[in-house]
């Protein structure tokens, strides 16, 4: 079992050579990844959408090719409940050893230990603890509580040409306008949606999907998953039926691997904006008995959960602001550009709202089931036409994938039938604001930001 541990760094650490970054200016000068020990050593880092804490194994590889052991913990460390340990400011669990995230010295935060067989790297959770309290503090919550960032937010650039553990480059509480091309569109995110367990993860409202001669309108909230496609039954059946009709593929069987090279695409619609993904992304290679074939990678769970594989956004710059419930998506920069870092506080700066952004709201009612409070959520905004025509040509792979729909706001619209979902209630506070105007905190440099990134590379199916 993973062991959760609450670590409180002594206040005297602020006086060390590795003092905490200034909370108002040094958010612009983040250095990538986790460093720990005394003196701190940079270790290989992996980012996860579905976790909220740091996960620190017994030993880790360093970024310079060496390795380091996790700092020792006192044998009599007090535990709050099974697997959760607490350390106090005047009696830090790791003694004089320090833990840094992107250059920020962590103060109060939760982490999990991994057994000796775990990968030799630190996994960094980008989610939130669903019901935060004094013994369970997510990494992003810790950064905000310490005053390093103004909103619980992050931005992620995936460098497709970098090695696996250097591909993800993350900024906390800020975004870099030099990391994307063209406009950035913001869609509704939801801070009350969980992964089905304990963590709040990046979540997005899906209006529907469309392909050649088919479309489905069914508003549902989906979470962004590290490595899994899982659709509600109506989405799963619509997509499966499409491949059967279009290519005579029975998605329950092996399919020709030529589908991986298809230039046709499926459209997802978020808050009235279209995002295209190549059809081949829904299939994966399978090796069995020295034979390679391809199979449908989309599943349908008993709980009707909706998970979008992060593969959907690997060619895009992704920005998540939990406090203001916004997700920004833009085409990732294809050539090096000067960095222009802007701090986030009241939403995603310079992002254009999707067509139905302001209408994509949740309605909550609370019920009690087995002594647990649950939210019954509904979403509704006008429906609109989705493109179902031919989808051939290189434009499907070369053009900007995120575009406004062509439907008129005033024509052919009707109220969608609400889609209900059940979620564990979240009583955590959040600083809500509908504004996305920047607060003037922008820093530009003429050089390219030298990320020393150790992130999660392209996830394999």
Walk me through what this model shows.
The chain has 461 residues and is mainly beta. The chain has two domains: 3-149, Beta Barrel (Cathepsin D, subunit A, domain 1); 179-338 and 346-442, Cathepsin D, subunit A, domain 1. Helix content is 6%, strand content 38%. The chain contains three helices and 37 strands. The protein has helices spanning 139-145, 233-247, 395-398; strands at 3-8, 34-37, 41-43, 45-48, 54-56, 59-61, 67-69, 79-81, 84-86, 98-101, 104-105, 108-113, 122-125, 128-129, 153-158, 168-172, 174-176, 180-188, 199-200, 203-211, 214-225, 229-230, 265-270, 273-278, 283-288, 291-296, 298-299, 307-309, 316-321, 326-332, 340-343, 352-353, 362-369, 372-379, 402-404, 419-424, 442-444. The strands form ten sheets. Strands 4-13-5-12-1-9-8 form a seven-stranded mixed beta sheet. A six-stranded mixed beta sheet has the order 16-15-29-30-18-32, with no helix packed on it. It has a six-stranded mixed beta sheet with strand order 28-21-20-23-24-35. A hairpin with a 5-residue loop joins strand 6 and strand 7 (67-69). The radius of gyration is 22 Å and the shape is globular. The two termini are 25 Å apart. 47% of the residues are buried. The model is unreliable at 1-25, 394-438 and 446-461 (pLDDT under 50). Residues 425-441 have a biased composition (Low complexity). GO terms for molecular function: aspartic-type endopeptidase activity. InterPro entries: PEPTIDASE_A1, Peptidase_aspartic_dom_sf. Residues 405-441 are annotated as: Disordered. Residues 411-422 have a biased composition (Basic and acidic residues).
């Amino acid at each position: 079992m993973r062991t959760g541990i609450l670590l409180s760094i002594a206040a005297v650490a602020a006086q060390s050579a590795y003092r905490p970054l200034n909370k108002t200016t040094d958010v612009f000068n983040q250095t990538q990844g986790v460093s720990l020990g005394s003196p701190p050593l940079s270790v290989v880092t992996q980012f996860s959408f579905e976790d909220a804490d740091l996960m620190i194994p017994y030993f880790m590889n360093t970024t310079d090719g060496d390795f380091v052991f996790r700092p020792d913990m006192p044998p009599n460390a007090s535990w709050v409940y099974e697997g959760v340990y607490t350390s106090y400011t005047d009696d830090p669990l790791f003694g004089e050893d320090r833990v840094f995230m992107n250059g920020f010295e962590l103060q109060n935060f939760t982490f999990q230990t991994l057994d000796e067989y775990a990968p030799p790297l630190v996994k960094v959770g980008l989610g939130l603890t669903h019901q935060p309290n004094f013994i369970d503090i997510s990494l992003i919550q810790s950064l905000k509580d310490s005053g390093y960032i103004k909103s619980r937010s992050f931005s992620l650039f995936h460098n497709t040409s970098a090695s696996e553990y250097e591909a993800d480059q993350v900024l906390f509480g800020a975004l870099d306008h030099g990391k994307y091309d063209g406009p950035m569109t913001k869609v509704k995110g939801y801070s009350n949606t969980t992964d089905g367990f304990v963590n709040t993860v990046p979540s997005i409202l899906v209006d529907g999907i469309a392909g050649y001669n088919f479309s489905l309108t069914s508003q549902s909230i989906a979470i962004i998953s590290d490595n899994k496609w899982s659709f509600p039954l109506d989405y799963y059946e619509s997509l499966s039926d499409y491949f059967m009709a279009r290519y005579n593929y029975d998605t329950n069987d092996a399919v020709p691997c030529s589908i991986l090279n298809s230039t046709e695409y499926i459209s997802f619609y978020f808050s009235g904006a279209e995002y295209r993904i190549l059809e081949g992304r829904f299939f994966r290679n399978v090796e069995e008995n020295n034979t390679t074939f391809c199979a449908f990678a989309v599943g349908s769970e008993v709980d009707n959960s909706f998970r979008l594989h992060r593969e959907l956004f690997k060619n895009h710059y992704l920005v998540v602001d939990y406090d203001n419930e916004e997700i920004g998506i833009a085409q990732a920069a294809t050539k090096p550009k000067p960095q222009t870092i802007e701090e986030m506080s009241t939403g995603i700066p310079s992002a254009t709202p999707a067509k139905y952004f302001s209408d994509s709201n949740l309605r909550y009612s609370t019920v009690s089931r087995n002594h647990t409070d649950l939210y019954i959520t509904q979403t509704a905004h006008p429906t609109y036409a989705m493109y179902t025509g031919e989808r051939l040509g290189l434009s499907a792979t070369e053009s900007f994938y995120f575009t406004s729909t062509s439907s008129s706001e005033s024509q052919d619209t009707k109220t969608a039938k609400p889609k209900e979902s059940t979620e564990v209630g979240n009583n955590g506070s959040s600083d809500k604001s509908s504004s996305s105007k920047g607060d003037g905190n922008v820093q530009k440099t003429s050089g390219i930001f030298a990320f020393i990134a150790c992130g999660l590379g392209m996830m394999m199916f």
